[in-house]
Predict the structure.
Amino acid sequence: VKITLVGCGALGGFFAARLLAAGEEVQILQRPGKRFEELRREGLRFRETSGEISVFFPSLACSPEELPPSPLVIVAVKAWSTSSVAPFIPELLEKSGWVLTLQNGLGNAEILAERVEKNSIVLGPCTYGARLDSQGTVCAAGDGELLLGPLRKERDLTPLKALFEGAGFRTVLREDPLPLLWEKLVYNATINPLSALMRCPNGDLLASEDLRKIMEDLVRETLEVAREEGVVLNREECLEKCFSICRKTGSNRSSMLQDVEAGRPTENDAISGQVVLRGQRRGISVPCTQNLWSLLRGIDFLAKNKKNF
Ligand code: KPL
């Protein structure tokens, strides 16, 4: 087996489906529960942006011992689950293989690096939108791109780029992963909390001048913290890219909104929380990010403790 996917939610399922459609061999590790049962019973159902539906039956397991090692492991679990899946990764990975994290937020690669060689880790921030509908079908929800960068510069990622391009992903290789991570963080710290609080699809954020102004503030704050962390990104370009993601994934509900609507924990701490924390450490105030972070922490708290009120 060539590829192991860890975590078959919306984004993981989207990647697996496109790779399977391109003829790649994919096996899936999914924790036991509703999603696992859905995949076992009905297979991986996928709806392309064109509306075309396909169904795949890749090998599926809920424990790592059931799967043979493979040369590429894709980690697509929520950021708050990284520490629980990291211990399984070494047994899923062939010697000199790759571990690609497609996850949102900061800190995932560092957690994985405690378990596998640093030079096997690849960062893959991407701006594709995907969602799971009520039947568990993975729906592609807008165009994007996949940026690939090695955690350690010495490894050549050309074969990985070819693999993803062969499956229809617009893929860009970058040598230095830090700007990649911060760039993605800017988009996630802007679009995700705002859409989750407004309960609207990404495209609606562009409709109001007030919301666009908040997005401007969020982009500026994240970039100020990034600069102090040694990553200088262009403000106009980032803001324009943010607006363009909202346009291209206009009907998509961001992953954070999907989590809020499903009553699941959000990636708030790995996204806005990281901007606030790193801002505090470096003496930079990020009031707009801080307010959105606190509001979402409130939502997370209420969802978790609902039965206690
Ligand atoms: O990464 C995303 C997410 O929803 O988590 C974006 C790019 C904002 C697409 O919705």
The chain is about 45% helix and 15% strand. The mean pLDDT is 95.
